[in-house]
Amino acid sequence: MQRLTSCLLSGSGTGLLAIRASPSTASLRMAIKPTRSAFLMQSRTICHKNHLDPEQQALKPPPWPYKTKRWHPTLETFLLDYFTKERFDENTVLICVEGLPCVGKTEFAKKLCEELGMEYFRDVDYEKDFLINHQGFDWRCINEILPEQLHQIGTNEWLERPDRGGVAMMQQFKNDWRHMQYIDALCHLFNTGQGVVMDKMLHCDKPWINTMAKFGHIHQETRDWFIEKCRPKYTQSKVLMRPHLVVYLDAPVEVLYERCQKKYPGNKALTLDFLAELDYQYKTYFLPEVQKHAFLLCYDWTEPADFDYVIEDVENLDFEGVDPHTETHKDWRFRFRGEYAEARGRYLNGVKTLIKDNNVRFWGVPGIDPGPHDHDHLRQVMTLWGRDAYRYRKGWNPKTNNFFSLLFKKEPFWQARYPYKGLFECAPYEWQPV
């Protein structure tokens, strides 16, 4: 593994982090030059969970049960809850793990959570999160009576035939799901003070969309619509706070291609040229953009190496030494105590507004807007086939639950946060069953 090295510039007083050159990471030579600042949350830097001060951890307030109990900033005003900042420690950070397919992101993220004592947030699984609901109904069974542009497909169908209909809709759902997952990760961080490690970050759709448009998997107009949809996530930095640290796992394209062929037999989408273009999009456009606002660690992960080196590199990052006049960690500079409560309430109670801001007009977008005739056809088919599958939400079906217990049952607060009920259990186009 080509691990990150650190050195100190003589006479400059600023730390320099660089990447050792290797055939696969030669284009990733980047430098991060921090100076001193007093406006960041961290008092020192990230450290191993065994290196945290036990006395400070004992005095730390307990996590707020945000999934079962409501919260409002006035609770802090009347001293009914601890101040949000009091739950923060050195490891209250947001870390995202990125890389090409089959490079080992999931195992790396879980191992990092275990070593640092953080919470793991997985990536989207399109089949489990959308196509198959809690009652076992699979939306792909209605593809036979729908035109091809309205087919509901999963990852396996896309790999078998990349140019088929439904690819754009699948990418749209993944983008929306990552948006919701990112909000939940920030909500967890502010309510518990525990750090978060995410498998893939919210802003990773742009390299995939550009590559899929170049190889004809989606229409060029659809690509432009996705770019417009992803733009607010970069400009409105204070709305969705960007991560503190991004770890990019790199590996030769040929090695990743062989892994994809073993994992997905009959794969026709993740070709050698496709992976090479995706690798180019990441290293040319995505990583330089990430480096502007976050720390960036890049590793040659062709073969998993000793994880102690990774923890050592993470612990050597100086969060206090960031120049306050740069974009690095700009989203996390809070000058007043009330700004912590404002951000906490935004991610816990303002989910409807955050999702609404992410919506972009899709009329006439190929693969996203089916048109009035096909939209009416799709609505009729879903109403006919989905009546039994989506008539009741999970846990509210009187056929499988006690009827009298449902009379006094209340909707969980965590589910009521979302703008419309059954977000992950309903069909696209915000359709609601009868």
What is the number of E strands? 7
Rg on CA atoms, Å: 23 Å
Low-confidence stretches: 1-43, 420-434
Order of secondary-structure elements: EEHHEHEHHHEHHEHHEHHHHHH
Q: Largest beta sheet: what is the strand line-up?
A: 4-5-3-6-7
List keywords for this structure.
five-stranded parallel β-sheet; single chain; disordered N terminus; 434 residues; 8% strand; disordered C terminus; alpha/beta
Summed up:
This protein is of the alpha/beta class and 434 residues long.
Characterization of this structure:
The chain is α/β, with parallel strands linked by helices and 434 residues long. Helices cover 39% and strands 8% of the residues. The chain is built from 16 helices and 7 strands. It has helices spanning 54-59, 74-77, 105-116, 126-131, 155-160, 167-192, 205-214, 220-235, 253-263, 272-291, 307-315, 337-349, 351-358, 372-385, 403-407, 413-416; strands at 4-8, 15-19, 94-99, 119-121, 196-199, 245-250, 295-300. The strands form 2 sheets. A 5-stranded parallel beta sheet has the order 4-5-3-6-7, with helices on both faces. Strands 1-2 form a two-stranded antiparallel ribbon. A hairpin with a 6-residue loop joins strand 1 (4-8) and strand 2 (15-19). Helix 7 runs antiparallel to helix 8 (220-235) and helix 7 (205-214) runs antiparallel to helix 10.
